[in-house]
Specification:
Blueprint (H helix, E strand, L loop, with lengths): L2 E7 L6 H14 L4 E4 L2 E3 L1 E4 L2 E4 H10 L5 H4 L2 E3 L5 H8 L5 H14 L2 E5 L15 H8 L3 E6 L4 H14 L4 E9 L3 H13 L4 E6 L9 H8 L2 H7 L1 E2 L7
Parallel strand pairs: 1-7, 1-8, 2-7, 3-6, 8-9, 9-10
Antiparallel strand pairs: 1-11, 4-5
Helix pairs in contact: 1-2, 1-9, 7-8
Length: about 240
């Protein structure tokens, strides 16, 4: 049975994609057949005159993952706005069946799937109010939560953990990102560790560069086999064809 984790954030721009890329690079370096999957995303990047989903492009370039973008990021919107708004403006609504079809292909092809959400749990994916936490639940993922290190993160993190539990989602781990070991950040981490009820809490430093020279060795050391296995969870079959 395939294993995986769905990376969510306490907010947008908290560093989910860097964490996803680091995990993917570590898995692929160990010859684990792993896939990245961001079913809904907004924001494109232009490279040599062609446009790509920004996050999927970064993860692929960073980790060496080779899968087609249409599989990895089936609903990618050019404008970097909330997904439901981008979908409406571009006339391309999110289809759960298309997402499930791409997901089944990845599960057949790879042993590990690293999913990534668009922002936080309470993000609507369409104008009917279909929420990101509903998609994660239907796909059967457990979650890894990426949080800021600084002021405000206790509230954001504990609210996200609470919502996840209310929606029947398991959070296996928390990544405290851009950590500089200040007194405030040490206190924040201690409170989150004490009150979240999440066993596996990792600290990710503020990297000087995202080119890989710092990031990949860090994740190689952080996610030794027993640790990576502790944050992954079995992926059940999803309904449909």
């Amino acid at each position: 049975m395939a294993k995986g984790i769905y990376i969510i954030g306490t907010d947008t721009e908290v560093g989910k994609t860097v964490v996803a890329a680091g995990i993917m690079a570590t898995l692929l370096k160990s010859n684990t057949p792993a896939a990245y999957f961001k079913p809904v995303s907004s924001g494109w990047v232009e490279v040599n005159g062609s446009f790509h989903p920004a996050d999927a492009f970064f993860v692929k370039q960073f980790s060496g993952f080779k899968e087609e973008e249409q599989i990895v990021s089936p609903f990618s919107y050019r404008e970097e706005v909330a997904p439901h708004f981008a979908a409406r403006r571009e006339g391309k609504p999110v289809s759960l069946e298309v997402i499930k079809d791409r997901y089944r292909y990845l599960k057949r092809t790879y042993e590990v799937i690293i999913g990534e959400g668009a922002g936080g749990l309470a993000v609507p994916l369409n104008d009917e109010g279909y929420m990101q936490y509903s998609l994660i639940r239907e796909l059967g993922f457990s979650c890894a939560l990426v949080a800021r290190a600084g002021l405000g993160t206790i509230n954001h993190t504990l609210l996200t953990v609470r919502l996840a539990r209310e929606e029947g989602l398991q959070i296996t781990s928390i990544f405290i990102n851009r950590y500089t070991d200040s007194p405030l950040e040490r206190e924040n981490m201690a409170v989150i560790r004490a009150l979240s009820g999440v066993e596996h809490i990792f600290v990710v430093p503020l990297f000087g560069s995202l080119e890989g020279k710092e990031v990949i060795p860090f994740f190689d050391d952080l996610l030794i086999p027993q640790r990576i296995n502790s944050i992954l969870a079995p992926l059940p079959e999803v309904e449909g064809r």
